[in-house]
């Protein structure tokens, strides 16, 4: 495993992290604690130390599975979670970015994670109006002073490019050290818009969805369908077809022979000098081990 400094914090994060959206049950599988524990045992073996979760991956469900899995050795992990939503059901969430609501979410996250402090607490894809609430950031700064939060970050939207630029440009003004953004071989927009701002402010960058929701794993061909309880089933059929055609071209023309496409795709993200870590999800210990192998292709730091 390789490690990189997370922005201008003192945190040394593994270049491969664990994304845990899948633990909330929206990727077609409900995880047991035993299954989550096995994934984290594999992460220990691979020397991964970075976990990304959120308040609305289930109703703090992902956080609960994570918290139980790491309670025996909490201090070895960098735990990142998020705030801004209340979860009700599959694909149904309400916004709550009021200072009072976020403080309640923070306390709920601390309980779910079985911890006294969250290493990275991230604004979760909210609007610019919610972002520009000084009272919110004042409250969060007080929570930092109280020792409940170590560092703040901004997890920017998957689709709002102008919002992403606006919030990233103001990251240091609100005390944030890290930007989390969708970045992968099929989605390169951040290279021109967000990454230069991250470099100017010495922000850490977490690349989420680095496998394009599994499309860059090499497992799916044109015509694939996903079950209704899998969030990928919501994609437009024509857009999905075009993406898979592009994946076939990439695999044919860019991926070296003998290299698994998923491993190559993760390493591709890490070759950008601004990216600190990638945070792919995984459903099994074997998938986690395959993800971890990308560190060997990431190049020297």
TrEMBL record:
Matches recorded under SUPFAM superfamilies: NAD(P)-linked oxidoreductase (SSF51430)
Record's GO cellular component terms: cytosol
Single Gene Ontology MF annotation: oxidoreductase activity
Gene3D superfamilies in the record: NADP-dependent oxidoreductase domain
All residue ranges annotated as the NADP-dependent oxidoreductase domain in the record: 16-297
Pfam families: Aldo_ket_red
Keywords: Oxidoreductase
Protein source organism: Vecturithrix granuli
InterPro entries, per database record: AKR_Detox_Biosynth (IPR050523), NAD(P)_OxRdtase_dom_sf (IPR036812), NADP_OxRdtase_dom (IPR023210)
Keyword Oxidoreductase (UniProt): yes
Name the UniProt record assigns to this protein: Aldo/keto reductase
């Amino acid at each position: 495993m390789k490690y990189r400094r997370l922005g201008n914090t003192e945190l040394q994060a593994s270049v491969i992290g664990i994304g845990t959206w899948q633990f909330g049950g929206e990727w077609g599988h409900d995880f047991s604690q035993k299954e989550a524990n096995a994934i984290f045992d594999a992460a220990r073996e691979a020397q991964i130390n970075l976990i990304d979760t959120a308040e609305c991956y289930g109703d703090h469900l992902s956080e609960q599975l994570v918290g139980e899995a790491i309670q025996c050795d909490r201090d070895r992990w960098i735990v990142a979670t998020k705030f801004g939503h209340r979860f009700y059901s599959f694909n149904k969430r309400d916004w709550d970015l009021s200072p009072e609501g976020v403080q309640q979410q923070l306390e709920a996250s601390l309980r779910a994670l079985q911890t006294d402090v969250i290493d990275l607490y991230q604004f979760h894809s909210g609007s610019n109006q919610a972002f520009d609430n000084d009272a919110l950031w004042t409250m969060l700064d007080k929570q930092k002073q109280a020792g409940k939060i170590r560092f703040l970050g901004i997890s920017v939207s998957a689709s709002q490019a102008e919002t992403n630029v606006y919030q990233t440009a103001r990251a240091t003004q609100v005390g944030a050290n890290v930007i989390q953004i969708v970045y992968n071989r099929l989605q390169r927009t951040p290279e021109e818009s967000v990454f230069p701002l991250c470099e100017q402010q010495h922000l850490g960058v977490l690349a989420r969805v680095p496998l394009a929701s599994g499309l860059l794993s090499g497992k799916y061909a044109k015509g694939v369908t996903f079950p209704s309880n899998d969030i990928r089933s919501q994609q437009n059929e024509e857009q999905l077809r075009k993406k898979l055609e592009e994946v076939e071209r990439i695999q044919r023309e860019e991926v070296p022979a003998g290299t698994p496409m998923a491993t190559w795709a993760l390493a591709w993200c890490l070759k950008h000098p601004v990216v600190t870590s990638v945070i792919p999800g995984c459903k099994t210990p074997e998938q986690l081990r395959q993800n971890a192998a990308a560190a060997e292709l990431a190049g020297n730091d």
